[in-house]
Amino acid sequence: MKNKSNKLKILMLNYEFPPLGGGASPVSYEIAKGYAKLGHQVDVVTMAYKDLPLFEKKDNINIYRVPCLRSKKEICHPWEQYTYIRSAKKFLKEHMKTHVYDINHTHFIIPTGVVALWLKKKYNLPYIITSHGSDVLGYNNKRSFKYIYPLVKKQWKTIVKEAKYVTTPSQFLQNKIKDLTKEGNFIVIPNGIDPKKFKPEKKENRILIVARLFENKGVQDILDALKGLDNELKKGNWKIDIVGEGPYRKFLENKVKENNLNNQVKFHGWLDNNSKELKSLYAKSKFFISASYFENMSIVLLEAVASGCTVIASNVGGNPEVISNTQCLFEKQNITELKNKINLALNNNLKPIELQSKFEWSNIIKRFERVLR
Protein backbone atom coordinates (compact mmCIF):
# COMPACT_ATOMS: atom_id res chain seq x y z
CA MET A 1 0.00 0.00 0.00
CA LYS A 2 1.68 3.19 -1.16
CA ASN A 3 0.87 6.51 0.35
CA LYS A 4 3.32 9.39 0.00
CA SER A 5 2.09 11.17 3.12
CA ASN A 6 2.22 7.92 5.11
CA LYS A 7 -1.34 8.70 6.20
CA LEU A 8 -4.08 6.27 5.23
CA LYS A 9 -7.56 6.82 3.88
CA ILE A 10 -9.56 4.26 5.84
CA LEU A 11 -13.12 3.14 5.15
CA MET A 12 -14.76 1.50 8.15
CA LEU A 13 -17.93 -0.58 7.89
CA ASN A 14 -20.08 -1.58 10.83
CA TYR A 15 -23.84 -1.98 10.75
CA GLU A 16 -23.93 -0.65 14.32
CA PHE A 17 -21.92 2.31 15.52
CA PRO A 18 -22.59 4.46 18.62
CA PRO A 19 -25.21 5.13 19.80
CA LEU A 20 -26.46 1.87 18.25
CA GLY A 21 -25.60 -1.65 19.33
CA GLY A 22 -23.78 -3.51 22.05
CA GLY A 23 -20.13 -4.27 22.82
CA ALA A 24 -18.76 -4.21 19.26
CA SER A 25 -20.20 -0.76 18.63
CA PRO A 26 -18.04 1.21 21.13
CA VAL A 27 -15.06 -0.97 20.16
CA SER A 28 -15.32 0.10 16.51
CA TYR A 29 -15.71 3.71 17.63
CA GLU A 30 -12.55 3.59 19.77
CA ILE A 31 -10.59 2.08 16.88
CA ALA A 32 -11.88 4.71 14.44
CA LYS A 33 -11.06 7.47 16.93
CA GLY A 34 -7.58 6.00 17.42
CA TYR A 35 -6.91 5.99 13.67
CA ALA A 36 -8.05 9.62 13.41
CA LYS A 37 -5.76 10.64 16.29
CA LEU A 38 -2.84 9.19 14.34
CA GLY A 39 -3.74 11.51 11.45
CA HIS A 40 -5.50 9.03 9.17
CA GLN A 41 -8.71 9.88 7.33
CA VAL A 42 -11.54 7.72 8.68
CA ASP A 43 -14.95 7.40 7.00
CA VAL A 44 -17.54 5.15 8.69
CA VAL A 45 -20.60 3.76 6.90
CA THR A 46 -23.21 2.53 9.36
CA MET A 47 -26.97 2.25 9.88
CA ALA A 48 -29.29 5.21 10.12
CA TYR A 49 -31.75 5.18 13.00
CA LYS A 50 -34.69 7.47 13.75
CA ASP A 51 -33.50 11.08 14.05
CA LEU A 52 -29.74 10.43 13.92
CA PRO A 53 -28.16 12.66 11.23
CA LEU A 54 -27.30 10.96 7.93
CA PHE A 55 -23.89 12.64 8.09
CA GLU A 56 -21.96 13.64 11.18
CA LYS A 57 -18.35 14.58 11.92
CA LYS A 58 -17.25 13.52 15.38
CA ASP A 59 -13.72 13.22 16.78
CA ASN A 60 -12.42 13.77 13.21
CA ILE A 61 -14.42 10.74 12.02
CA ASN A 62 -16.77 11.17 9.05
CA ILE A 63 -19.88 9.15 9.90
CA TYR A 64 -22.27 8.29 7.05
CA ARG A 65 -25.58 6.68 8.04
CA VAL A 66 -27.52 4.80 5.38
CA PRO A 67 -31.31 4.26 5.58
CA CYS A 68 -32.17 0.79 6.94
CA LEU A 69 -34.88 -1.05 8.80
CA ARG A 70 -34.08 -1.15 12.51
CA SER A 71 -36.70 -1.23 15.25
CA LYS A 72 -34.49 -1.10 18.35
CA LYS A 73 -31.38 0.79 19.31
CA GLU A 74 -29.70 -2.06 21.21
CA ILE A 75 -30.67 -5.04 19.00
CA CYS A 76 -30.49 -5.64 15.25
CA HIS A 77 -32.33 -8.66 13.85
CA PRO A 78 -30.93 -10.64 10.88
CA TRP A 79 -33.52 -9.31 8.42
CA GLU A 80 -32.65 -5.78 9.53
CA GLN A 81 -28.95 -6.51 9.00
CA TYR A 82 -29.78 -7.58 5.44
CA THR A 83 -31.20 -4.11 4.74
CA TYR A 84 -27.82 -2.67 5.73
CA ILE A 85 -26.09 -4.77 3.05
CA ARG A 86 -28.42 -3.47 0.34
CA SER A 87 -28.38 0.12 1.54
CA ALA A 88 -24.61 0.28 2.07
CA LYS A 89 -23.96 -1.05 -1.44
CA LYS A 90 -26.34 1.49 -2.94
CA PHE A 91 -24.68 4.33 -1.02
CA LEU A 92 -21.13 3.19 -1.80
CA LYS A 93 -21.79 2.91 -5.56
CA GLU A 94 -22.17 6.69 -5.58
CA HIS A 95 -19.72 7.44 -2.79
CA MET A 96 -16.83 5.59 -4.45
CA LYS A 97 -17.11 7.84 -7.52
CA THR A 98 -15.66 10.71 -5.49
CA HIS A 99 -13.76 8.94 -2.70
CA VAL A 100 -10.64 6.78 -2.82
CA TYR A 101 -9.47 4.58 0.05
CA ASP A 102 -6.32 2.64 0.87
CA ILE A 103 -7.93 0.03 3.10
CA ASN A 104 -11.29 -1.06 4.48
CA HIS A 105 -11.62 -2.08 8.14
CA THR A 106 -14.86 -4.04 8.47
CA HIS A 107 -16.51 -5.25 11.66
CA PHE A 108 -18.33 -8.61 11.54
CA ILE A 109 -17.87 -11.32 8.89
CA ILE A 110 -21.65 -11.38 8.42
CA PRO A 111 -23.43 -9.15 7.52
CA THR A 112 -20.84 -6.41 6.97
CA GLY A 113 -18.24 -8.65 5.35
CA VAL A 114 -20.60 -9.15 2.40
CA VAL A 115 -20.14 -5.46 1.57
CA ALA A 116 -16.37 -5.67 2.13
CA LEU A 117 -16.04 -8.58 -0.31
CA TRP A 118 -18.15 -6.74 -2.89
CA LEU A 119 -15.92 -3.63 -2.55
CA LYS A 120 -12.81 -5.74 -3.07
CA LYS A 121 -14.18 -7.35 -6.22
CA LYS A 122 -15.66 -4.17 -7.69
CA TYR A 123 -13.08 -1.55 -6.61
CA ASN A 124 -10.05 -3.66 -5.70
CA LEU A 125 -10.22 -2.30 -2.13
CA PRO A 126 -8.42 -4.61 0.33
CA TYR A 127 -10.01 -5.23 3.71
CA ILE A 128 -9.36 -6.53 7.17
CA ILE A 129 -12.21 -7.91 9.23
CA THR A 130 -12.64 -7.85 12.98
CA SER A 131 -14.92 -10.63 14.16
CA HIS A 132 -16.86 -10.09 17.38
CA GLY A 133 -18.39 -13.52 17.99
CA SER A 134 -22.03 -13.29 16.92
CA ASP A 135 -20.81 -13.81 13.33
CA VAL A 136 -19.18 -17.18 14.14
CA LEU A 137 -20.96 -20.54 14.34
CA GLY A 138 -20.49 -22.22 17.72
CA TYR A 139 -19.73 -19.04 19.64
CA ASN A 140 -23.25 -18.85 21.02
CA ASN A 141 -25.58 -21.65 19.94
CA LYS A 142 -28.66 -19.85 21.25
CA ARG A 143 -28.26 -17.05 18.73
CA SER A 144 -29.95 -17.00 15.36
CA PHE A 145 -26.64 -17.26 13.46
CA LYS A 146 -26.74 -21.06 13.73
CA TYR A 147 -29.79 -20.96 11.44
CA ILE A 148 -28.26 -18.40 9.08
CA TYR A 149 -24.83 -20.03 8.74
CA PRO A 150 -25.90 -22.99 6.51
CA LEU A 151 -27.34 -20.44 4.06
CA VAL A 152 -24.20 -18.28 3.94
CA LYS A 153 -21.50 -20.88 4.69
CA LYS A 154 -19.78 -20.65 1.29
CA GLN A 155 -19.82 -16.84 1.26
CA TRP A 156 -18.70 -16.69 4.93
CA LYS A 157 -15.61 -18.79 4.11
CA THR A 158 -14.85 -16.67 1.03
CA ILE A 159 -15.06 -13.45 3.07
CA VAL A 160 -12.59 -14.89 5.60
CA LYS A 161 -10.25 -16.21 2.91
CA GLU A 162 -10.21 -12.95 0.89
CA ALA A 163 -9.49 -10.71 3.89
CA LYS A 164 -5.98 -9.35 4.28
CA TYR A 165 -6.34 -10.30 7.94
CA VAL A 166 -9.12 -11.54 10.18
CA THR A 167 -8.62 -10.15 13.67
CA THR A 168 -10.31 -11.47 16.79
CA PRO A 169 -10.33 -9.97 20.29
CA SER A 170 -9.49 -13.34 21.86
CA GLN A 171 -7.65 -16.55 21.09
CA PHE A 172 -10.85 -18.34 22.04
CA LEU A 173 -12.76 -16.73 19.14
CA GLN A 174 -9.92 -17.27 16.68
CA ASN A 175 -10.02 -20.99 17.52
CA LYS A 176 -13.77 -21.04 16.83
CA ILE A 177 -13.18 -19.56 13.36
CA LYS A 178 -10.38 -22.04 12.65
CA ASP A 179 -12.78 -24.86 13.53
CA LEU A 180 -14.81 -23.74 10.51
CA THR A 181 -12.05 -22.86 8.04
CA LYS A 182 -8.26 -23.01 7.92
CA GLU A 183 -8.02 -20.64 4.93
CA GLY A 184 -7.22 -17.13 6.06
CA ASN A 185 -4.70 -14.93 7.86
CA PHE A 186 -5.60 -14.70 11.52
CA ILE A 187 -4.32 -12.47 14.30
CA VAL A 188 -5.49 -11.79 17.87
CA ILE A 189 -5.81 -8.11 18.81
CA PRO A 190 -7.76 -7.68 22.07
CA ASN A 191 -10.42 -5.16 22.90
CA GLY A 192 -9.23 -2.44 25.21
CA ILE A 193 -9.91 0.56 27.38
CA ASP A 194 -8.29 3.86 28.26
CA PRO A 195 -7.13 3.23 31.86
CA LYS A 196 -6.89 6.97 32.52
CA LYS A 197 -10.70 7.12 32.40
CA PHE A 198 -11.12 4.57 35.19
CA LYS A 199 -9.57 5.39 38.56
CA PRO A 200 -10.29 3.60 41.86
CA GLU A 201 -11.75 5.63 44.70
CA LYS A 202 -12.30 4.68 48.33
CA LYS A 203 -14.11 1.37 48.02
CA GLU A 204 -17.56 0.83 49.49
CA ASN A 205 -19.43 -2.40 50.21
CA ARG A 206 -20.91 -2.53 46.74
CA ILE A 207 -21.19 -5.34 44.19
CA LEU A 208 -21.42 -4.14 40.58
CA ILE A 209 -22.98 -5.99 37.64
CA VAL A 210 -22.83 -4.42 34.17
CA ALA A 211 -24.52 -6.41 31.40
CA ARG A 212 -27.19 -6.35 28.75
CA LEU A 213 -30.17 -7.99 30.44
CA PHE A 214 -30.49 -11.21 28.46
CA GLU A 215 -30.69 -14.75 29.85
CA ASN A 216 -27.21 -15.65 28.57
CA LYS A 217 -25.61 -12.87 30.63
CA GLY A 218 -26.33 -14.96 33.75
CA VAL A 219 -27.47 -12.12 36.03
CA GLN A 220 -30.17 -14.45 37.40
CA ASP A 221 -27.40 -16.84 38.51
CA ILE A 222 -25.71 -14.04 40.46
CA LEU A 223 -29.01 -13.22 42.19
CA ASP A 224 -29.51 -16.89 43.09
CA ALA A 225 -25.96 -17.13 44.46
CA LEU A 226 -26.50 -13.98 46.53
CA LYS A 227 -29.74 -15.39 47.95
CA GLY A 228 -27.73 -17.84 50.04
CA LEU A 229 -25.51 -15.07 51.36
CA ASP A 230 -28.22 -12.74 52.62
CA ASN A 231 -26.93 -12.74 56.23
CA GLU A 232 -23.43 -11.69 55.12
CA LEU A 233 -24.89 -9.03 52.82
CA LYS A 234 -27.06 -7.56 55.58
CA LYS A 235 -24.25 -7.67 58.13
CA GLY A 236 -21.95 -5.67 55.86
CA ASN A 237 -24.76 -3.44 54.58
CA TRP A 238 -23.85 -4.46 51.02
CA LYS A 239 -25.44 -2.80 47.99
CA ILE A 240 -25.82 -4.51 44.61
CA ASP A 241 -25.93 -2.28 41.52
CA ILE A 242 -27.21 -3.72 38.23
CA VAL A 243 -26.42 -1.59 35.18
CA GLY A 244 -27.94 -2.54 31.84
CA GLU A 245 -31.18 -2.89 29.93
CA GLY A 246 -32.84 -5.66 27.99
CA PRO A 247 -35.85 -7.97 27.64
CA TYR A 248 -34.91 -9.97 30.76
CA ARG A 249 -35.26 -7.02 33.15
CA LYS A 250 -38.79 -7.83 34.35
CA PHE A 251 -37.79 -11.42 35.08
CA LEU A 252 -34.77 -10.21 37.06
CA GLU A 253 -36.85 -7.70 39.02
CA ASN A 254 -39.16 -10.56 40.03
CA LYS A 255 -36.12 -12.68 40.92
CA VAL A 256 -34.91 -9.92 43.27
CA LYS A 257 -38.29 -9.99 45.07
CA GLU A 258 -38.33 -13.81 45.25
CA ASN A 259 -34.83 -13.84 46.75
CA ASN A 260 -35.64 -11.09 49.28
CA LEU A 261 -32.91 -8.82 47.92
CA ASN A 262 -35.10 -5.72 47.50
CA ASN A 263 -33.17 -3.72 50.07
CA GLN A 264 -29.80 -4.53 48.49
CA VAL A 265 -30.43 -4.39 44.73
CA LYS A 266 -30.85 -1.30 42.57
CA PHE A 267 -31.50 -1.38 38.81
CA HIS A 268 -29.88 1.62 37.10
CA GLY A 269 -30.99 0.85 33.54
CA TRP A 270 -28.69 1.57 30.62
CA LEU A 271 -25.77 3.91 31.33
CA ASP A 272 -23.39 5.26 28.70
CA ASN A 273 -19.84 3.87 28.97
CA ASN A 274 -18.52 7.40 29.37
CA SER A 275 -21.12 8.56 31.90
CA LYS A 276 -19.96 9.92 35.25
CA GLU A 277 -22.51 7.72 37.01
CA LEU A 278 -21.10 4.47 35.59
CA LYS A 279 -17.50 5.52 36.21
CA SER A 280 -18.42 6.41 39.79
CA LEU A 281 -19.99 2.97 40.32
CA TYR A 282 -16.85 1.27 39.00
CA ALA A 283 -14.63 3.49 41.15
CA LYS A 284 -16.35 2.83 44.48
CA SER A 285 -17.48 -0.81 44.05
CA LYS A 286 -15.41 -3.42 45.85
CA PHE A 287 -16.51 -6.30 43.64
CA PHE A 288 -17.55 -6.81 40.03
CA ILE A 289 -19.29 -10.00 38.90
CA SER A 290 -19.80 -11.30 35.35
CA ALA A 291 -21.70 -14.58 34.97
CA SER A 292 -22.03 -14.58 31.17
CA TYR A 293 -22.50 -17.92 29.38
CA PHE A 294 -20.66 -16.64 26.30
CA GLU A 295 -18.04 -13.94 26.20
CA ASN A 296 -15.53 -12.87 23.58
CA MET A 297 -13.43 -10.10 25.14
CA SER A 298 -15.44 -8.25 27.76
CA ILE A 299 -14.96 -4.48 27.82
CA VAL A 300 -16.83 -4.15 31.12
CA LEU A 301 -14.50 -6.70 32.70
CA LEU A 302 -11.49 -4.63 31.60
CA GLU A 303 -13.13 -1.47 32.94
CA ALA A 304 -13.74 -3.16 36.30
CA VAL A 305 -10.12 -4.33 36.53
CA ALA A 306 -8.86 -0.82 35.69
CA SER A 307 -11.14 0.59 38.39
CA GLY A 308 -9.56 -1.56 41.07
CA CYS A 309 -12.55 -3.86 41.56
CA THR A 310 -12.01 -7.43 42.68
CA VAL A 311 -13.50 -9.35 39.75
CA ILE A 312 -15.35 -12.67 39.70
CA ALA A 313 -16.14 -14.02 36.24
CA SER A 314 -17.35 -17.14 34.46
CA ASN A 315 -14.58 -19.19 32.90
CA VAL A 316 -15.73 -18.67 29.31
CA GLY A 317 -14.39 -17.20 26.08
CA GLY A 318 -11.76 -14.52 26.54
CA ASN A 319 -12.29 -14.08 30.30
CA PRO A 320 -9.31 -16.31 31.26
CA GLU A 321 -7.16 -14.21 28.89
CA VAL A 322 -7.94 -11.16 31.05
CA ILE A 323 -7.96 -12.78 34.49
CA SER A 324 -4.69 -14.47 35.38
CA ASN A 325 -5.87 -15.46 38.88
CA THR A 326 -7.93 -18.62 38.34
CA GLN A 327 -9.35 -18.24 41.86
CA CYS A 328 -11.53 -15.47 40.43
CA LEU A 329 -13.06 -17.74 37.77
CA PHE A 330 -16.01 -20.13 38.10
CA GLU A 331 -17.77 -22.60 35.82
CA LYS A 332 -20.68 -20.93 34.01
CA GLN A 333 -24.16 -21.69 35.41
CA ASN A 334 -22.60 -23.31 38.50
CA ILE A 335 -24.40 -21.32 41.18
CA THR A 336 -22.77 -23.22 44.07
CA GLU A 337 -19.27 -22.42 42.81
CA LEU A 338 -20.24 -18.81 42.16
CA LYS A 339 -21.63 -18.54 45.70
CA ASN A 340 -18.33 -19.88 47.08
CA LYS A 341 -16.34 -17.31 45.06
CA ILE A 342 -18.53 -14.46 46.32
CA ASN A 343 -18.13 -15.76 49.87
CA LEU A 344 -14.34 -15.73 49.43
CA ALA A 345 -14.53 -12.13 48.23
CA LEU A 346 -16.78 -11.07 51.12
CA ASN A 347 -14.18 -12.50 53.51
CA ASN A 348 -11.35 -10.60 51.76
CA ASN A 349 -9.79 -13.77 50.32
CA LEU A 350 -9.86 -12.50 46.73
CA LYS A 351 -7.81 -9.49 45.65
CA PRO A 352 -7.89 -7.08 42.67
CA ILE A 353 -5.65 -7.87 39.68
CA GLU A 354 -3.53 -5.50 37.57
CA LEU A 355 -4.60 -4.44 34.08
CA GLN A 356 -2.07 -5.64 31.50
CA SER A 357 -0.73 -2.98 29.12
CA LYS A 358 -1.81 -5.03 26.07
CA PHE A 359 -5.41 -4.08 26.92
CA GLU A 360 -4.76 -0.32 26.64
CA TRP A 361 -6.24 1.33 23.53
CA SER A 362 -3.05 3.27 22.80
CA ASN A 363 -1.16 -0.01 22.29
CA ILE A 364 -4.03 -1.76 20.51
CA ILE A 365 -4.46 1.00 17.89
CA LYS A 366 -0.76 0.76 17.00
CA ARG A 367 -1.19 -2.98 16.41
CA PHE A 368 -4.22 -2.40 14.18
CA GLU A 369 -2.34 0.28 12.24
CA ARG A 370 0.48 -2.18 11.48
CA VAL A 371 -2.07 -4.71 10.21
CA LEU A 372 -3.65 -2.12 7.89
CA ARG A 373 -0.39 -1.28 6.11
Give a written overview of the molecule:
The structure is a single chain. The protein has 373 residues and is of the alpha/beta class. The chain folds into two domains: 9-193 and 360-372, Glycogen Phosphorylase B (Rossmann fold, 3-Layer(aba) Sandwich), CATH 3.40.50.2000; 195-346, Rossmann fold. The chain is built from 13 helices and 14 strands. It has an eight-stranded mixed sheet with strand order 3-4-2-1-5-6-7-8, sandwiched between helices. Strands 11-10-9-12-13-14 form a six-stranded parallel sheet, with helices on both faces. Strand 12 (285-290), helix 10 and strand 13 form a beta-alpha-beta unit.
Using brief descriptors, characterize the structure shown.
Rossmann fold, 2 domains, 373 residues, 13 helices, eight-stranded mixed sheet, single chain, 18% strand, 38% helix, six-stranded parallel sheet, alpha/beta
